[in-house]
Amino acid sequence: MHDWKNMLLAVDDTPTSRKAVQYTADIVANLQGVRICLLHIYPEPPPDYYRQGRTLDQYRQENDARAERIFREATGLLAGRGVPAEAIRTRSRLAEQQTISQTIMAVQAEEKAGTVVVGKRGVSKAEEFLFGSISSALIHQSRDFTVWVVG
Amino acid sequence: MSGYESADILPTGISTALRRHRVRRSLRRPSRVFTDTTDFTAIDYGDIILVDGRYFLVTGYTREGRFGVDEQIKPWVPRVEDLASGEKRILKLVFHETFDITLGSFTIPCYRNPEKEARILELVRDHPHFMQGEAVLDEAGNLVRILEIIGGSRLDKYIHRSNLPHREYFFRELPAILRQFLDCVAAIDFLHRHGFRHGDIRRDHILVERGSGLFRWIDFDYDFYMPERPFALDIYELGNLLMYLTARGNYHPREILNDPNLGEETLQRLEPGDYALLSRNRVVNLQKLFPYIPTELNNIFLHFSTATTVFYDTAAEFLDDLAGAVDRLDSMVG
């Protein structure tokens, strides 16, 4: 089991993600030795993306810029609750030939993160079947790390 | 940009073959030779598509309809004849259609993706359960797929050919049908393991080949955008197809009431959890309609019900369960 204080916090621009950041900040703000990697994963572009004359580089740039905005907000929330700036890192990545949950787990393995935090969207059963649930996938497939699902 | 030339450019042998072809008899205008298929609507019956150094005479068009809707001509999918060899083929020209499909209350963006179909054709070369063909570029760089024609019938028509009562169909015909279908599911698993979706699994997208009796998938150019569950729609449609084969139709309250062997009493026995997750008035707990369906097979259907707590994540899981159910069915038949 990896060190639980080495945390991976998956973020996007949804209210549930914001909640997850706030919750994490409230729990860890005054603890020693906590390291938080803010992670933003984005999916591959839809099949017709390239037909509109755009390139993968453009797609990455657009999404990395969006990730920067998300990171700024999340870092502000964490810092505002007392998490030191030097304890926070950021990573943005394209889920290349993988699902978002698979990519989160790949980064967890690289980072040797002991805790992965995600927001819970609260999807219906039908929605979960068709579109998936990142939190469910993480819970079912987690090994050697703890998953916090913040609803 | 016209994209075509006059038939004067044809080599002598091809020109002779064209002149003698039956298509020319009903044509009052000269054939045109298209080397650029970008504007496929300009290409007509009796014209020639020149790709890969081969002269394909357009002899007709394929048709397709959603169930219950009149079949419509697909102008981007002409039936052709190679004027040098006389071989009949189907060409698929590039048509970048984008549309949404609705499943229950959800909308899923779908695309025609010629590149994907070309890559699958390459992957499944000589695979017995897929249509065969090759992709070449026309002069404008459009990906033209040259497909071999499968002689045979659509699976949905094939299972209705004997018109036996359901019970007899179930025990006499279904075991062999499901053995073949098992191979088709394995073929989809093969695609998924290589990162491809079929994209348009339907009961008329398996053809039963005349002679060999092989079940073969056709039409792989649909694609959809579901990044977290990339294969869910294929798996969902495999489930639908399996239920259709088993019941020899889809069962909603209307069909149950119209069936003299089922009727009101059967309908009253159904509970909310017996219906489909994504199509709320279709029955998936088919064992309540046909009690001789073995539990192993019915349990597969229940994965697609509103009551399910477990989904199939992969076609391989579906395949494993189906293999067990088919074994069970075989043992019941003896």
Describe the structure.
The complex is a heterodimer of chains A (151) and B (334). Chain A has helices at residues 15-28, 56-80, 100-111, 125-131, 134-141, and strands at residues 6-10, 35-42, 88-94, 115-119, 146-150. Chain A is of the alpha/beta class and 151 residues long. Chain A has one domain (6-150): 3-Layer(aba) Sandwich (Rossmann fold). Chain A has a 5-stranded parallel beta sheet, sandwiched between helices. In chain A, helix 1 packs across helix 2 (56-80). The mean pLDDT of chain A is 93. Chain B has 334 residues and is α+β, with helices and mostly antiparallel strands. Chain B has 2 domains: 4-148, Phosphorylase Kinase, domain 1, CATH 3.30.200; 152-333, Transferase(Phosphotransferase), domain 1. In chain B, helix 5 packs antiparallel against helix 10. The radius of gyration of chain B is 23 Å and the shape is elongated. The chains are: A alpha/beta (151), B alpha+beta (334). Chain A binds chain B through residues 43-44, 46-48, 51, 95, 97, 99-101, 125-134, 137, and chain B through 96, 98, 103-106, 108-109, 111, 113, 116, 195, 223, 225-230, 232-233, 236, 277-278, 306, 308, 311.
Sum this structure up briefly.
Chain A has 151 residues and is an alpha/beta fold. Chain A has helices at residues 15-28, 56-80, 100-111, 125-131, 134-141; strands at 6-10, 35-42, 88-94, 115-119, 146-150. Chain A contains five helices and five strands; from the N terminus they run E-H-E-H-E-H-E-H-H-E.
* Helix content percent band of chain B: 25-40%
- Gross geometry of chain B: elongated
For the biggest sheet of chain B, the summary is: 8 strands, mixed
| Helical segment count of chain B | 10
The total count of strands of chain B amounts to 14
Net shape of chain A: globular
Question: Under the CATH scheme, which class of the largest domain in chain B?
Answer: Mainly Alpha
**Overall SS class of chain A:** alpha/beta
Largest interface: A-B, 22 and 27 residues
Number of helices of chain A: 5
Q: Which stretches of chain A of 5+ consecutive residues score pLDDT under 50?
A: none
Could you tell me the radius of gyration of chain B in angstroms?
23 Å
